[in-house]
Amino acid sequence: MEVDSASLNHIDAVINKGKADAWRFTGIYGFPKACRKAETWELLRGLIQKFSLPWICAGDFNEILRNHEKVGGAPRRQSEMNSFRDIVDECGFVDLGFVGHKFTWRGRRPGGVVLERLDHAFASNSWLEKNPATRVQHIRAHLSDQNPIIIKPEGIIACRNKLFRFEQMWLKEDGCGDTVKAVWEDGSAVNSMQLVAQKIEKCGIRYKRNKIHELKNNDNEWCTSDNLIAEIVVRFYESLFTSSQPSDMQTVLEAIEPKVIMDNILMAFETLHYMKHHQLGKTCFMALKLDMSKAYNQVEWGFMEGLLQKMGFHERWIALMMECITTVSYSEKNGFYAWRSILKGREVIMRGMRWRIGDGNSVRIYHDKWLPATEHGRVFSPVSNSNSEALVSTLIDHETCSWREAEVDRLFLPMEASIIKAIPLSFSNRCDTIFWPRNHDEVYFVKSGYKLLMEMECGNGAASSSSSMGAMKSTWNGIWKLEVPNRIRLLLWRAGNDSLPTRVNLAGCKMSTETTCSLCNLEPEDTLHALWKCPLLSTIWQVAFADLVADTNNVSDFLNIIQRAQQDRSHFGLFAWTTSLI
Question: What residue ranges define each of the domains in the chain, with the CATH number in brackets?
Fold first, then answer.
């Protein structure tokens, strides 16, 4: 090992210098004071260009990457964590993670105990190509506030100190019972727990990992090599899932008595029903479920179809069942709604995601969201037709890893040009990455996506969105504060969100083709019609809510009905109960 440079905050060394397997290790101790942390990042920037060897860098950086790496104390400022993440990106590092206790430092501060993961280990891609199993282990320290870390290039093999316990089923194996009996009948003058332990150890013939050492092929020959064993297994399952195309199934089907099978089903149902409703008294009952061998994978689909016909199932039902088990067409038909939901979620993610610039080869200047410190993320400077599809990479001098400032000033408005020139660029020519700016750790969560979707649904402008969100929040709070059973609160919430299984909603999900109300046969059955506007409901609502009926002739959805009903708080509970009884 040769130390190339060192200071109070780092040691940079090369191992096996001049050889083909040379690599580099850098130990870091970051400045603990917030005002000097930038010096740690500048130190790393100065080390980036010194060597192009496989690189591993570890130590106490005195900083965290994400908020979840700290518990207790004041929250870390986002700008400080961003600076740490930026230098990790510039160095081309991959966080090696850890095994063991999460936090490497603990201390007491005003307000209580603080736990933080300040020690990290990073590696370059070239290091991981040579040592893909590299892992980091956190070791618990009892005499220090800092937990040491160990880097293991060969990986960490989990040690399983599982207690030996004898299993009754082992006695079914030929010779096991005789072995146990012989060991325990072995006479000895010593009568101690040590002797007991020795006998148990001798009995441990089954305390081994199960492993296939050899398999017999179709030629009745034993094969021991891994390749031959794998080939036998593959051929077995290929044969298992390949039809033999049987032609004479009628003889078997004629012997089946549908009535016997149906009688067994009814008997099982009646038995379980009786046991469920007779659980008191001194007389007890017990049911046994026999573990039958599953024949699903060994049944020919043609035989299954003939059996269903023999049992008297309707042809339409048989066709659906066969379509389900033999093809993917049925899944595709019912998967349409699922795919629509996925595509809707993709739309939300596309609306909220941002690009972090690396080499700029994946980001379009005028179409993608990549400008930081702006609400929209997009460029609004004028664009010429020739540059409409230009990539951000055209604005970067890749030799110096810096912005082409003259070109930026020429193409963009002064405000946007200053923002672009302030974006840090990586010296390691990293790819562009996508992140989610609505969470502190920049990872997408459904909750933040839902909030964005609600803002999109409620209005485009910030002011209108804020007021709409406030009104919606007041509506939902009014529902959840009602002193009624939870099922009624949930019903109102679903009705307000238009998520009840009305005929219109089912048709929209491609689960039904009929939309007309089945009671009046006059109008489509949406939520508003099903709970409020159906002519057959008019007498119910007129009893206690005549004023509300007169005031809501022109409303477009049931949510408006709920909001109007909430204005009379003394009757809102009765409104909820009435809705639940319809």
Answer: 2-152 (3.60.10.10), 251-326 (no CATH), 354-435 (no CATH), 459-581 (no CATH)
